[in-house]
Amino acid sequence: MKIGVIGTGNMGGAIMRGYGRNASANGDEIIAFSRTRSKLEKVCEDAGAVPADSMSELIKDSDVVLLAMEPKNIRDNISNIAKDFTEDKLLISVAAGIDINFFEDNIGAGTMVVRAMPNMPAKVGEGMSSLSRNMKVTDRAFTKAIDIFEGVGKAEEVDESLIDAVGGVSGSSPAYTYMYIEALAQCAVKNGMEYDQAVRFAAQAVLGAAKMVLASDESPDDLRKAVCTEGGSTIEGYKKLVEMGFTEDIMEGMQATVNRTIEMAKGK
Predict the structure, then answer these.
(1) Total domain count for the chain?
(2) Closest CA to 114 of 71, 65, 151
(3) Can you point out the beta strands (E) in the chain?
(4) Is 85 helix (H, G, I), strand (E, B) or coil?
(5) What CATH number has the domain bearing residue 225?
(6) Cα–Cα separations (whole angstroms), residue 75 to 91, 102, 122, 260
(7) Which pTM was predicted?
(8) Of 19, 46, 116, 217, which has the fewest beta carbons less than 10 angstroms from its beta carbon?
(9) Are residues 102 and 80 in the same domain?
(10) Which domain holds residue 90?
């Protein structure tokens, strides 16, 4: 199949590079278009992709069209996208705030549409992507969509009604995790460590903890209890975080993210 990618910035470029490692083995070819030709050619070289001369050319030549443009650019260009689109093509969008109905209304009710929400760790092959599809998407086409996003991490089907929750729990949460790592590192610096070393220790601890959650049958809270032995140092830090409202603060921060996502979808 020919996989066309429109937009080769952070997310588009990450997906191209990630899936590019397996594209030829799967018998696929990646083609891409971006308004910035120099960036386009560089990403295509890295991903083993072919640059297209225009968006129209890419859409006509592709079996799958992945829109990795800014939401505003998608809205501004939707009529140009629609004129070259046919119902045998699969459209995948990673744009926040643009729902499946928008594409059905502007391209056609028969369009196969997948709405994807990856997150920034896709750049290092550790992304988490949700994929939601309309009723027109065949199982074969959806399997191809899953394959593309598994090239940059993990991917699961999620009903579109949950997309706002996904935005909070995985789309935006890396930003809060970076804040957590920075706070750990800064405290270590106060206690004598060099900053760069402190960041490495904090980041590796977070990475290891996350892998344990994914590998274990126990809940995150059960794993926390295993570390917080009575009379030890860890439980003292845990008690202080509970006292300061750590869990509630994180939940409120995520809810603010979800609320803003809902507003954006309404054009606010």
Answers:
(1) 2
(2) 65
(3) 2-6, 29-33, 50-51, 64-67, 90-93, 112-117, 127-133, 153-157
(4) coil
(5) 1.10.3730.10
(6) 15, 9, 25, 19
(7) 0.90
(8) 217
(9) yes
(10) 2-159
pLDDT tens, residue by residue, 120-146: 999 999 999 999 999 999 999 999 999
Looking at residue 243, its amino acid is E
Q: Give the position of tokens 């940059």.
A: 152
Whether 165 is covered by a domain: the verdict is no
Distances (CA, A) of 60 to 48, 55, 141: 20, 9, 17
Determine the number of helices (DSSP H) and then strands (DSSP E) in the chain. Answer: 12, 8
pLDDT tens, residue by residue, 41-57: 999 999 999 999 999 99
- Spatial strand order of the sheet with 90-93 comes to 50-51, 29-33, 2-6, 64-67, 90-93, 112-117, 127-133, 153-157
Q: What is the DSSP string of 121-168?
A: GGGGT-EEEEEEE-TT--HHHHHHHHHHHHTTEEEEE--GGGHHHHII
Q: Which helix (H) or strand (E) holds 214?
A: helix 195-215
The first and second tokens of residue 188, run together, are 């270590």
Q: Compute the distance between CA of residue 83 and CA of residue 152 in angstroms, rounded to an integer.
A: 31
Write the pLDDT tens digit of every residue in 191-213.
999 999 999 999 999 999 999 99
Angle of helix 173-190 relative to helix 246-265, nearest 10 degrees, comes to 150
Q: What one-character DSSP code corresponds to residue 211?
A: H
